[in-house]
Amino acid sequence: MLLEFAVPQPAVVSTRLDNVGEVTNKGLEISLNTVNIASGGFFWRTSFNFATNKNEVVDLGGRASIIFGRVSGAGLSDVQAQIAIEGQPLGTFFGPKFLGYDAAGNEILSTDPGRPERTTGPLKDGRQFLGDPQPDYTFGISNSLNYRSFDLRVFIQGVQGNKILNNTRLEYQRASNVRNGINFFQDALDDVAAGLDPDATVHFSDRFIEDGSFIRLQNVTLGYTFPTSWFPSLRSLRGYISADNLFVITDYKGYDPEVNNVAVFNGVYALGIDYANYPRARTFSFGVNLGF
C-alpha cells in the first residue's frame, strides 16, 4: 500500500508516500462458454463469468486506522464515512447507527454521550462498522443467437452484496430544506411523521447506507446480414439496431447503483459513495457494417 506520512520539518514537502502496509485479496473466477443449440441453421451460444473476492487489510504500517471517505453537503464538514483498519475490508463504511428520535424530535445516534453503544465500536466512540462497499460477487451472462441471416446478442451483468452511501439522499432528505427553499426527497416527510423535528439536524448514519446490488440488462443488439448477391460490389453488409442500459433491477434508492464519488481524504480514494452523480443514459443506436 502507498500511504502518506508526515515529513519532519523543515522540508520542501509536508508529506511523502511510503510503500508500507499490506492488503490481501482472495477469490475465485469462473468462466464458462457453452453451445446450447446448433441445428437447422439455428445457433445459441452462452458465455457466463462469475467472480468473487474477499479483501482484507492486514497491516497499515504502524497506524491503528485510517479514516477517509469524505461526506459532502451542508453541515457535513469534516465528516468521513470509511475506515481502513486491520481485519476489515478496505473502505468499510464506518459511523454512527441511527436509533430513533428523542422527545424533542432530534436524532438518537450511537455516538451520543451516555449511549451504551459508545463502548462497542472499534474506536470506543460509538461509531460502528456499517458495511462493505466491495461486492460479494459479480457476474455476467451473454447470449448469442443466430438464425440464418439474423443475429441477436443479449448481455446481462450483475453485482451483489456491496453497500453504497447515498450521500445525495443524505443531502436532500431534510425537512428543513422546505423553509430554506431547497429541494427535498419525499422520505423527509416520513421522517417528520416518525418523530423528527422539521428544524432538527439530519446526520450521517447507517440509515443512508444502502444495498447496492443490481442486475442490469446492459445491451441488446439485433442484426441482419444481407445476401452478398444483393450487393455484388460488397464483400458483406450487415445492419443492426442496439440498445444499452434498458433496465436495472435494484433496491437502491439513487439514480444508479453503479456509481462512485472520487473524493480523496488522507490520501485515500473513497469507495462506493454516491453524491450528485449523473445517471447513466439509456441509449438506442443503429448502424451498418460494410465489408469491401
Structural class: mainly beta
Count of helical segments?
Answer: 2
Series of H and E elements = EEEEEEEEEEEEEHHEEEEEEE
As residue ranges, the low-confidence spans are none
Adjacency order of strands in the biggest sheet: 3-4-11-12-15-16-20
Shape: globular
Number of strand segments: 20
Could you explain the architecture of this structure?
It is a single chain. This protein is mainly beta. It has a domain at 24-55 and 132-291. 5% of the residues lie in helices and 49% in strands. It contains two helices and 20 strands. Strands 3-4-11-12-15-16-20 form a seven-stranded antiparallel sheet, with no helix packed on it. Strands 5-6-7-10 form a four-stranded antiparallel sheet, with no helix packed on it. Strands 14-13-19 form a three-stranded mixed sheet. A hairpin with a 6-residue loop joins β6 (80-85) and β7 (92-95). The longest helix is centred in the middle third of the chain and has 8 residues, at 187-194. The radius of gyration is 25 Å and the shape is globular. The mean pLDDT is 91.
Question: How would you summarize this macromolecular structure in one to three sentences?
Answer:
The protein is mostly beta strands and 292 residues long. It contains two helices and 20 strands. It is 5% helix and 49% strand.
